Please model this.
Amino acid sequence: MNSRSAMPPHPAVGIGLKPQHYAAVLEAVSASISSSQPAPAWVEVHPQNFAGAGGPPHRWLTAIAGHMPISLHSVGLSLGSADGLDQHELEQLAAMCDRYQPWLVSDHLSWSGMAGNRYPDLLPMPYTQEALDHFVIQVSQAQDRLKRPILIENPSRYLAFACDEMDEVTFLHQLCARTGCGLLLDINNIEVSATNLGLDACAMIDAIDPALVGEIHLAGHAREEREDGPLLIDDHGSPVSAETWALFVRFIRRAGPRPVLIEWDTNVPPYEDLMREAGKAECLIADCISSGADCPECEHDLARA
Model:
C-alpha cells in the first residue's frame, strides 16, 4: 500500500483517529479539495479496530495513510498477563505493521486477561521485581516479532498494591533499560494516578527521563467528588484539564518538544473541537521553544486554555 511511514515534522501534534472524523481528516489533507479545515500532522489508531482484512475501515485508513504518518496504539497485547502476551493479538498487530508501516507502535503497562479469559480493561501491574522480570520478557518477545522497539504507556491507577517494591517511574526506567523500549508518557494518566493515590504529580513528571519518551498523550478525564476526596476516571471524554496542560508545559520546558497526541475516545466531539485542542498543544510547544526555560507565554496561554 502507499503509506507515508516517515516521521511527521518535529514537533508535531496528532489526533486519535475516529470514524466520525475520517471524512474531515481526508478533506483537510487532500490536495484535490480546497479546505479551510486544519489538518493534524499525524493520526493514531487502535489496531484492534482494524482486525478484518478489508472493508470500509481499511479503505478510509489506507486513504488517510497515503497523506500522513500513522501510529498504532494497541490495547490488546496484555503484556502483563501471567500467561504471557496474547499471541493472536501480536500476530494481528504484526500484520497491521506490515500493511501500514507505522512510525510508532505502542501498548500499555497493564494486563487484560488470565486463564484464557479476556477483560475489557487495562488492569494495573504490581510494581515488584517479579512483575518487572515477567514484563521484560513479554516486551522483548513483542519487539522481536515486530522487528522494532515499541513504546509502553504509563497507566492510570485507582488503587496501589500493598506489595509494591518500587515506584512507577523506577519500574518504567528499568523496563526501558532492559528491553530497549521507550515510553509513551500519558500526562493525563499522571494527573489521574497522582490525585487518586495521593502522590505528587509534579514529582512524577520531574522524575521521568526525557530521553526515553517517544510520544506524549494528552486527554481529559471525569471527576467524582467523594467524602474522602476527588476520584478521577480516565475516560478520555472531555477537554484536557488545566492541571494536565500545566504538567505538559512543565515537562516540555525541561525535556524539549516531543510528538503529542490528543486523545478523545468517548463523547467524541466535532472535528473542529478536537483540532482546537491540538492547536493549544502546538501553541504551548511553540511558546516554550521560543521563550526558553522560563516560558512566560506558556503560562499566559495556559490561563486562556
The chain has one domain: 13-304. The domain at 13-304 is CATH 3.20.20.150 (TIM Barrel). The first strand starts at residue 13 and ends at 16.
